[in-house]
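Bumping my old thread because nobody answered last time. Still need a sequence for this structure:
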């Protein structure tokens, strides 16, 4: 058994040994219904964020040619070399789109995953993953400036900001929209895919109070939504989860963020599933 699979075996046994505690807080659902076609479009944006920086800036990347995103108007591509964090901002129709890139080496990222937390500055009684927060903080100003520019270029018809990301990018999207919703008076929403847990139960409850308009998509046996393990250092998913048990079969989960009949019902051992949401191979292709 190689080092990687030995790690996965240990992690899965650790997950299964934990006695999880469900939140008794009553969360609010989003004010819109899940649409599979919309989710697939935002998966395309999420996958495009993995492409070459210059190709994103020119919107000539392989994923940029997908029919559901080819009319997107890129405003800026964002990168921080210290944290290796990449994102892009632009607009289409009446929507400003913000997308965050996930890890470029999924297996190494999982193998080296740490659970360290910091007090969440916007709500200090909550705790969030320190690495995720550092990565988001490193591009915050660039993202804010890019959204401002997109709103100016888009004009008065732009009346919504949508945020997305896959894997690590989903975690960054979560931290981003928690702040974006306070920067502007227009509504903001999020579709993300294969997100790890971002913070503790207090953070999940606080997040839902300020931003309930979130769809967190999970897929089959995807490993990443199972890390950090639920309950370890209080880690807890934000709602609302939509769980795909196959490419075409899904359910909208309960308001806890940790519905035991959704992704939590699986062992969650598959990196393949993490890279094949809706049967679309991640990432830039």
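Sorry it took so long. Here it is:
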């Amino acid at each position: 058994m190689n080092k990687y699979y030995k790690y996965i075996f240990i992690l899965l046994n650790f997950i299964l040994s934990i006695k999880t505690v469900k939140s008794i807080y009553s969360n609010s659902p989003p004010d819109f219904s899940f649409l599979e076609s919309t989710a697939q479009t935002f998966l395309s944006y999420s996958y495009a964020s993995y492409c070459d920086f210059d190709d994103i800036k020119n919107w000539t990347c392989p994923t940029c040619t997908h029919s559901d995103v080819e009319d997107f108007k890129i405003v800026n591509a964002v990168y921080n070399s210290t944290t290796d964090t990449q994102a892009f901002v632009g607009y289409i129709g009446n929507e400003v789109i913000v997308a965050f890139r996930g890890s470029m080496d999924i297996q190494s990222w999982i193998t080296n995953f740490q659970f360290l937390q910091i007090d969440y500055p916007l709500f200090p009684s909550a705790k969030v993953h320190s690495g995720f927060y550092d990565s988001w903080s490193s591009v915050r100003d660039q993202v804010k400036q890019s959204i401002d520019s997109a709103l100016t270029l888009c004009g008065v018809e732009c009346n919504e900001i949508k945020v997305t990301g896959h894997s690590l990018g989903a975690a960054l999207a979560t931290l981003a929209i928690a702040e974006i919703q306070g920067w502007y008076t227009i509504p903001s929403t999020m579709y993300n895919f294969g997100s790890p847990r971002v913070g503790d139960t207090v953070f999940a409850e606080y997040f839902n109070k300020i931003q309930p308009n979130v769809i967190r998509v999970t897929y089959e046996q995807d490993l990443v939504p199972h890390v950090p393990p639920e309950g370890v250092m209080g880690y807890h998913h934000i709602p609302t989860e939509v769980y795909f048990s196959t490419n075409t079969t899904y359910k909208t989960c309960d308001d806890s963020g940790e519905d035991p009949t959704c992704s939590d019902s699986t062992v969650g051992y598959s990196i393949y599933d993490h890279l094949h949401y809706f049967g679309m191979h991640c990432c830039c292709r």
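The chain is about 35% helix and 20% strand. Let me know if any region looks off to you.
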